[in-house]
Amino acid sequence: MKSSSSSWFSDAILYHIFIDRFAGYDEDKDWQQPDFMGGNLKGIVSKADYLTELGINSLWVSPFYKTDAYHGYHITDFVEPDPRFGTIEDIRNLVDTFHQKNTRILLDFVPNHCSAHHPYFQAALHDRKSKYRRWFYFNRNNKRYKTFLTIRELPKLNLDNPETRLYMIEAAKYWLSMGFDGLRLDHAIGPSHDFWKRFSSEIRTSYPDAVLIGEAWLEGLRFRHLKTLGIRYKYWRWIRGFRFRDIRVEYQNVLDGVLDFYFRHRITEFIAWKSAHEKFTNHLRQKMLDHYAQVPEDFYLPSFIDNHDMNRFMFDTGQNKEKLKAALAFQFSLPQPPIIYYGTETALSHTKTVCGHVPLSDLQARKPMPWNELDHEMIEFVKVQIAARKQRKK
Fold first, then answer.
1. What burial class does residue 110 get, using C-beta atoms within 10 Å of its C-beta: 0-12 exposed, 13-18 middle, 19+ buried?
2. pLDDT reported for residue 106
3. What pLDDT is stored for residue 164 in this prediction?
4. Which neighbouring-strand residues pair with 104?
């Protein structure tokens, strides 16, 4: 059942932080290597005034659980923070600091899979009689198992097993008990629909104001990936051709919303890739209005123009700052909550494309925040857009 107490999110202006590369990192480290640079929770707190002055009123922070990867998505313990990111006290301080500034925080939660180094998986891998064998999808005859898509180091959790499901729900509740205001749910298409209904119901009972926003991203999927997905009618939908609308409907009345990849594709198509993008503004707006008309009013589609898995918008424009400004102005004029990925407000970009088939290319979208080289003119532009949006929402 969907929350009826999450109306605060309609006024949210979110700032998406990739912890390891935002603040507190070692400037001498090579950001093009998949290593921990040292960004941490204390670093985020140290930039609280900067974020408040920018005008945002909500944060989305990447995973800080124990992990064996700098990005935090290869989790080895779901209920302990990784010391490289901080301590429990640092987490409490993060929440308290931003709540005092009337800023809410969404935590990135990753229920679908874990690291192959997670002790539960290691127990299941080496002992067929281990109770944790049922926590994963093992082939009965060998050590083969289902994964997050085809990534062997990320075994897929069996969330339809009652013990696994309970563990993950309790982990989510644990973090919400520390004051987080909601969850961004990684790879929402992985767990089953039944899991999400139970998960949502349990969270609503304990934390009725918590917002649940899913990542329902199908781009780049192949037929071989379908067996790892929990969405209903997936093979029939594959034959028809996956559409964002079909997948979005999967989560209506279950979650509070899903990230709007449709918006990202359209704004790239009509602003980043058009030489005379001004001519297409009305056409783009009509497409978005038609898109929103298909969605219940209380189902959120937070918009974003870039994130940690894809090209920065500045790169897609050919390093054209005026197009970036046009995209941000358009984004902030729409009714759905906007998300700013760290660095977008200072026109952060890169020189090589992010490509799923090129190892480590995603590092291009994860460059450290350039605190010593901020584009203050661009930041002022973003401040104006945020202020204007707040005024319109009054």
1. buried
2. 98
3. 98
4. 58
Give the residue from 71, 15, 87 showing the smallest Cα distance to 48: 15
CATH of the domain at 366: 3.20.20.80
Q: Which domain holds residue 132?
A: 113-158
Count the domains in the chain.
Answer: 2
Q: What is the pLDDT of residue 5?
A: 58
**Is this prediction's pTM over 0.85?**
yes
Sign of CA dihedral 33, 38, 40, 46: negative
Report how far residue 273's alpha carbon sits from residue 168's, in angstroms, rounded to the nearest whole number. Answer: 42
Query: β-strands 147-148, 151-155: how paired?
Result: antiparallel
Q: Domain of 136: which CATH number?
A: 3.90.400.10
Our answer to whether residue 89 is catalytic in this structure is: no
Instruction: Note whether residue 2 is domain-resident.
Output: no
Domain check: are 250 and 214 in the same one?
Answer: yes
**3-state class (DSSP) for residue 109:** strand
Catalytic-role residue among 20, 90, 181, 186: 186
Q: Which of 82, 181, 215, 345 is catalytic?
A: 215
186 assigned to active site: yes
**Average pLDDT in the 322-347 region?**
97
